[in-house]
Amino acid sequence: MEIIVSTLLSVYVISLVVFSILLYICIIYLTRKVELEHDDHSSDHGHSFDGIKELNEPLPLWWFWMYILGIAFAIAYLFLYPGLGSNKGFLSWTSHKECNQNIAKNNKLYESIYVSYSKQNIEDLSNNEKALKIGRSLFVNNCSLCHGLDAKGGNGFPNLTNNKWLYGGTPNEIKTTITNGRMGKMPPYGPVLGSELDIQSTAWYVLSLSMPAVSEKLTEKGKVKFASICSACHGLNAKGNKFIGAPDLTDPQWIYGGKFENVLETIKKGRQGIMPSHKDVLSKEQIHLLTAYIYSLNRV
Amino acid sequence: MNTKSLYQNRKEFYTDPISGRFNKIRLSTMSFVVFCFFLLPWLSWNGHQAFLFDVSFNRFYFFGSVFWPQDFVLISLFFIFFVIALFVVTLYAGRIWCGFLCPQSIWIKMSAFFSRFFEGKRNNRIKFRNSAFSVNKFFVLFLKHFFWILLSIVTSFTFIAYFIPVKWMFFSLISFNIFYNTFFWVLFFGVLTYFNIGWFKEQLCFLLCPYSRLQSVMFDESTLIVSYDKERGEKRGARSKGLDYKLEGLGDCIDCKKCVTCCPTGIDIRNGLQMECISCGACIDACNEVMLKLDYKPDLISFKRENQNFSNKSSSKIKFTLYFIVLLFFLCLLFYFYINRPLVHFSVTRGQYQLFNVTKDNFIENFFFVKIMNKSDSDSTYLISVKPNIFTIVGNVDLKLKPGEMNVLNFTLKTKNVNTENKFMDVFFYIFDVKNNRLIEKKSRFVLSGGF
After folding, report:
1. Tens digits of residue pLDDT in B323-367
2. What range defines the domain where residue B390 resides?
3. Please, which of A96, A204, B98, B185 could form a disulfide with A218 given CB 3.0 to 4.6 Å?
4. Topology annotation, domain A185-275
5. Is B8 close to A60, i.e. CB distance below 8 A?
6. pLDDT class of A156 with cuts at 50, 70, 90
7. What is the C-alpha separation between A73 and A69, in angstroms, rounded?
8. C-alpha span between B196 and B108 (Å, rounded)
9. Could you tell me if A287 and A180 are in contact, meaning their C-beta atoms sit under 8 angstroms apart?
10. For strand B424-433 and strand B438-447, is the pairing parallel, antiparallel, or unpaired?
11. Residue B404: inside a domain, yes or no?
12. At B413, which CATH number?
């Protein structure tokens, strides 16, 4: 059914186009001359208004050639470009192809800039104002959706300006994070830790690591639980582990909030943080500049 | 049955040179236009070309002022002003623009000069045209076309120089470091000019220029036009010596056809006012020369108003006054917009993706992009401030920009202890242009809390 409809439509369009071109040729052929009724060469139409007569006066000859040129252009166009129904034309031009060509052209235009920057190391680039300007616009377009326009993150999204890193803050580590993405997982430990009291105590202990004011009574049970369960990932000193992305719990920086309820929820229900891979979105050179920009944010 | 073709080729006509009062005026006004046209691109002002439509950087330099695409209203106003001025002039003095100032008339005259220089007078040229092909003919034609082409190329080079800096073009030309794009446009307009002065000529006035078609709307009985005194001239004809022609019933016109052969548009003015007449006064000069020789009164053909006294005809006077008021109005408008045109482009956009952010110490933050572009032709410093006063600005508040430079500032505004019942709040951004001493305001919105 679809084939019949598209074929019929194609035939309809072709016949319309061909008919109108033939019609124009006929009209121009038929109107090139006029028969004179009188011999005075004026070819009066017989219409007159207020003393003004309508005559059939000749047009300039080049005008006639413009018509012919117009028809020739139409035929040449239909031959080269898609116009006759579903016929693709001699050049098989599509807007999609042209768009891709223009993108390639544009990329080529900026290629030299990117390549010259990609040869410099990131520490140097993070002092280069021009490179950072490009890096910033890449950040705004690709990263700020989650990390915020000022890169300070938000609930669930890490702050990129405080020099605290889940997966390490050297230029290479940042680059790996952007290129391949990261999958952070805090499993739900509610049932494992035991009673509600144990969980609350663990939460208080975690808070006490960065907030010394918490009383020891509250944290007594939690300390034991932390050493036996949590320390597997976060380490005995709770400094975290950058190889699996376990956060440092001894600083007051929190991704999911630093209130008691927040920490309790994190322990009970777990968290999942996903940083998507950007190797298909950005080129290597772009990632290089982006890394330099993010690296520059963490210098004090 | 008799038929007639509805397409007609251009009929070539051969003009004779004339000399006289109007020709002198014409030569001086035309030389002035040509002089300005060729000189203007070479002037510079403050290190840039004084008159330049810079197409690659989207700006228009006019001596000390720079206009940007946003100021286009000024240019359109200028054209409206120009069109109304044309109406006023036309009502008073007819198509003197065409005869005395229009580039098309000037270039036709230049082209005719080369034809006459190489091929001789009218009769010689008609003979030359119909003569058999010979080496001599080829040589003369070659010289004529060579000078036409030279004129076309110089014209088109100068024309392009209004769009691409002329010094750059000139040096790339003499060092043979020609850029394909520039070269193409010079060649393109060169070919068009050659085609225009070699063949198209007065057809532009008849067939393309709207002015000749619109003139009947602008004219009235008091307009100054070139006219032939029919009562005095008719009946025209040759006369024998010694006899009183008036007794034979003849008028002053001896039908020498000098007024026809000198006409740059090839018409016979004795048929009355025609659409083709460009009011150049060549026929007046030609006729006066003959009248002087015959010892007749001059001005058989002359610039005349049908209604002899302009000031007596009240309707024309009212029309003229009204036109003049409109003209003045547009002049004031143009002046007002010129004085008050913004010398800085300033816009405030809210940051994408994030409506607001609450920091740990309970500040509410909003992000803005502040875009500032210096549109003046000198360096300037811009100071940024925000109202109401409850907001603190995080980031730079002053910015130095070179002419034409643009910068986007990332702006964070933060505030504390505000009533968040209203979800939005108006916030006003101000920049103070230190150099030009102007304050510009832009309104934006600050989001205080979310949820609906």
Report:
1. 999 999 999 999 999 888 888 889 999 887 778 887 777 888 888
2. 344-447
3. A204
4. Cytochrome Bc1 Complex; Chain D, domain 2 (1.10.760)
5. yes
6. confident
7. 6
8. 8
9. no
10. antiparallel
11. yes
12. 2.60.40.10
Contact (CB<8Å) B3/A34: yes
CA distance B156 to B169: 12
Same domain, B357 and B405: yes
One-letter identity of residue A33: K
**CATH dotted code for A106-181+276-297:** 1.10.760.10
Model pTM? 0.77
Q: Which pLDDT score is estimated for B394?
A: 81
Please report whether residue B1 resides in a domain: no
With CB atoms and an 8 Å threshold, state whether A32 touches B354. no
* Averaged confidence pLDDT in chain A: 88
Residue A87: alpha-carbon gap to chain centroid = 34
Three-state DSSP class for residue B373: strand
Contacts of B2 in chain A (CB under 8 A): 35-36, 39
Residues A150, B365: C-beta atoms closer than 8 Å: yes
Mutant choice from B2, B5, B7 vs A, greatest count of A C-beta within 10 A: B7
Among B110, B5, B96, residue whose Cα is nearest residue B278:
B96
Residues comprising chain B, all counted: 452
CA dist., res. B93 & res. B110, Å (int): 25
Total domains present in chain B: 2
Q: Which structure tokens are listed for B196? A: 């225009």
Look at residues A262, A168, A187 and name the one whose alpha carbon lies nearest to residue A232: A187
Helix, strand or coil, per DSSP, at residue B159: helix
Is pLDDT of B72 > 90? no
Residue B208 lies in a domain: yes
Assess contact for B391 and B414: CB atoms under 8 A.
Answer: yes
Tens digits of per-residue pLDDT, B84-94?
999 999 988 88
**A25 C-beta neighbours (distance < 10 Å), count:** 13
How far is B130 from B14, CA to CA, in rounded Å?
13
ipTM attached to this prediction: 0.70
Say if residues B1 and A31 touch (Cβ distance below 8 Å).
Answer: no
